Amino acid sequence: MIKICGTGSALPARTVTNDDLSKIMDTSDEWISSRTGIRARHLAVEETTTGMSVAAAKQALEESGLQAEKLDLIIAATLSPDHVLPTLACEVQAAIGATHAVAFDLHAACSGFLFSLNTAAAYMQSGIYKNALIIGAETLSKMMDWNDRGTCVLFGDGAGAAVLCNLTDDGTDGGLKSFVQYSDGARGGVLACGNRPVNHPFANHEAENQYVTMDGQAVYKFAVSTVPKIVTEAVEKAHLTLDDIDHFVLHQANQRIIESVAKRLKQPMEKFPMNLQGCGNISAASVPILLDSLNKNGMIKTNERIVLAGFGAGLTWGAAVIQW
Ligand code: UT7
After folding, report:
1. Residue 41 backbone dihedrals phi, psi, to 5 degrees
2. Which H or E run includes 104?
3. For the whole model, what pTM was predicted?
4. Ligand 1: distance of its center to the CA of 273 in Å?
């Protein structure tokens, strides 16, 4: 039985409100909050992707009661590591002293935490590894074009983590019940970010746009049509009904997307916790940060069933059902 035994999260100290943004660009609290629900986000000033990941990982380990040396696997989901090399996961491994773990990054944008959970679970279910640390961490503020008000107002920075343990069956019904995941590279252009150009002396490549670009309406349509499908599929795969689910912890991109998903699933909004109002969209970090705040605030009770779902660039999308 694969259980989440501990969670953690870290956010930058600096909160930037919509009103703060309206002082530096042509936008308003009214525009941002009415279209997205977002009112503020945390932006890294001194914080780093690695530093926030380490803080989140330490909290998750502490709650799990597991020593770092007992970790077999660390997967870090990020599109905004501090360095291209070494990987974020290896930096975390060194910082927490997880000397026996294999560590690697997984890049699936806003689905990254879900794909990390599913990847770790596959290793654990096959008996290869017993204990895993999964992280979703972003410093998206450095990926934004701060002259593009259509994208930069949506995103924030932060990190979340979870420790997964493969517990011997204790007779209870808990743990990871099912997961589904999908990709459609053919539609990748709607949410993109260029890389550094080939710049050796024998080539002459134009630099791509190194900041995030987005066709907001296409991403919106993609999200509201696919998320209800994968949630339903994951729930059915777990031999449950939507009414059996206590909490739907969705990627925190936009309140209107979450409300639309709730409506399509015919589930009350009370089952859809949100932190996007104060955090914005933190890509791979949004699901684990929200999960940690629910856990820390005692909002999840033993045996409650939770759907986790992520969706975003790639395009990628995935969902999992866990019993707490
Ligand atoms: O992890 C997945 C990440 N992506 C998403 O979740 C994005 C999903 N999409 C959305 O949430 C919405 O499409 C947005 C919130 C991004 C945009 O809302 P929209 O209703 O689709 O607005 P729009 O892009 O069609 O823009 C409408 C107007 C435009 O002005 P004109 O051309 O009508 O004069 C924009 O220039 O709003 C303008 N605009 C802004 N105005 C004030 C765009 N950004 C801003 C802004 N402040 N920040």
Report:
1. -150, 160
2. strand 102-106
3. 0.96
4. 23
